UniProtKB/TrEMBL annotation:
Example GO BP: systemic acquired resistance, salicylic acid mediated signaling pathway
Gene Ontology MF terms in the entry: L,L-diaminopimelate aminotransferase activity; pyridoxal phosphate binding
Source organism of this protein record: Amborella trichopoda
Coiled coil: none
Protein name, per record: Aminotransferase class I/classII large domain-containing protein
């Protein structure tokens, strides 16, 4: 066992908090740390360097050292916990991390409970399932979301969530590809690319990693990149409706994106995790666009539709028409990745997913989405009434609020310090997010209304 000799004297100590974005967004209650679902690691800072008696000869993955600071959402949680220690009587409300708050509809949990109880019987027990997902669920996803689009059940891989599939896809692509991302965009795209060794070092002067094409998306270009200025890349990560800006790409814009990919021989990874929030005629799937099946993969999830952030269930669509430069089907390699790294989604979660796609389940999910969209209207109206420019909010549960000339982290700290509200600094999503904050509409109605009141008191 490796032993550590520590100096007997310490100059100071600190406490770092770790957790994932499924845990960290829960509505705040001032509970003792040991009772909160957050891992706490106390770190002592010795005066003298720690002396190790034994080290392995295994080199650290050099790409891990490229990552900047901590992952965005754990860093927000750390600052929130520091604030709660400073103000133990305050009721901190989270409008930050995109975790759902409302109960899963009973029609869906009943199906999971039935499947769970069946596992205690000889007739109902099942062990390992197909890594690709249960056949009836794959068929239901194909019919519900891709009917008449030429997507078959065998094109669908059921998983434990879109975020997990992002990393599996990066394993599939390997380290010798160049990728493009919207700027700003969900941090997992960039961080997984860094870990895989696809990027160069972080360039502090421009707040970007080398060898990544950042496709700037701002109010000036309607939050859709000027593709004439985008370099040829192998992989394009594209999210619509977008997290964090809340903007959904139009049909004409997606036609241009698909044509750009076809012209350059690129693969689009299209994240449609918020598609059910679309309330206009923007496409809900990339496969609505002619020619997309030859150049696109789509990832999606039940997380933001049915409250499955903790249940964990999503899917990836890889059409048979999508092939690598040598003609080998992309789906076959992804199938090998899945079979190697994954034993399949929980059979209980899949029972819930199947019920989500029943007529009663779809109705229940639309009601949940409608509730969050009403919250979004409250958030958007609040900031607009205070004179702020607000983007998004129509087709996504996020408002993208502009604070021109100000640091996103400074605005985050101001709102936390003075209103006890957690938001998300826009710069955490990429350099083009500087000067913005993302405000989530996931929350209990009374908390959203209270947050609106506090914001008005702060900025009126």
């Amino acid at each position: 066992m490796a032993l550590l000799q520590l100096s007997a004297h310490f100059s100071s100590s600190s406490c770092a908090f770790f957790g994932d974005d499924d845990v960290l967004s829960s509505t705040s209650k001032t509970l003792p740390l040991l009772r909160r679902n957050v891992k706490c690691r106390c770190i002592a800072e010795p005066v003298e360097m720690m002396q190790t008696v034994y080290k392995t000869k295994v080199s650290r993955n050099e790409n891990m050292a490229k990552l900047q600071a901590g992952y965005l959402f754990p860093e927000i949680a750390r600052r929130r916990e520091v604030h709660m220690l400073k103000y133990p009587e305050a009721k901190v409300i989270s409008l930050g991390i995109g975790d759902t708050t409302e109960p899963i509809p009973e029609v869906i949990t009943s199906a999971m409970a039935e499947r769970s109880y069946a596992l205690s019987t000889v007739a109902g027990y099942s062990g390992y399932g197909a890594e690709q997902g249960e056949k009836n669920l794959r068929a239901a996803i194909a019919e519900t979301y891709y009917g008449n689009l030429g997507i078959q059940e065998t094109d669908i891989f059921v998983s434990d969530g879109a975020k997990c599939d992002i990393s599996r896809l990066q394993i599939l692509f390997g380290s010798n590809v160049m990728m493009a991302v919207q700027d700003p965009s969900y941090p997992a795209y960039v961080d997984s690319s860094v870990i895989m060794g696809q990027t160069g070092p972080f360039q502090k002067d421009v707040e970007k990693y080398g060898k990544i094409e950042y496709m700037k998306c701002t109010p000036e270009n309607g939050f859709f990149p000027d593709l004439s200025t985008v370099s040829k890349t192998d992989i394009i990560f594209f999210c619509s409706p977008n997290n964090p800006t809340g903007s959904a790409a139009t049909r004409e814009q997606l036609v241009r994106l698909v044509q750009f990919a076809r012209d350059n021989g690129s693969i689009i990874v299209y994240d449609s995790a918020y598609a059910m929030y679309i309330s206009d005629d923007c496409p809900r799937s990339i496969f609505e666009i002619p020619g997309a099946k030859e150049v696109a993969i789509e990832i999606s999830s039940f997380s933001k539709y049915a409250g499955f952030t903790g249940v964990r269930l999503g899917w990836t669509v890889i059409p048979k028409q999508l092939v690598f430069s040598d003609g080998f089907p992309v789906a076959k390699d992804f199938n090998r990745i899945v079979c190697t790294t994954f034993n399949g989604a929980s059979n209980i979660a899949q029972a819930g997913g199947l019920e989500c796609l029943s007529p009663q389940g779809l109705k229940a999910m639309h009601e949940v989405v409608g509730f969050y969209k009403e919250n979004t209207d409250i958030v958007v109206d609040t900031f607009k009434s205070l004179g702020f420019k607000v983007y998004g909010g129509r087709n996504a549960p996020y408002a993208w609020v502009h604070f021109p000339g100000r640091s996103s982290w400074d605005v985050f700290e101001e709102i936390l310090e003075k209103a006890h509200l957690v938001t998300t600094p826009g710069s955490g999503f990429g350099p083009a997010g500087e000067g913005f904050i993302r405000v989530s509409a996931f929350g209990h109605r009374e908390n959203v209304l209270e947050a609106s009141k506090r914001l008005k008191e702060l900025y009126m």
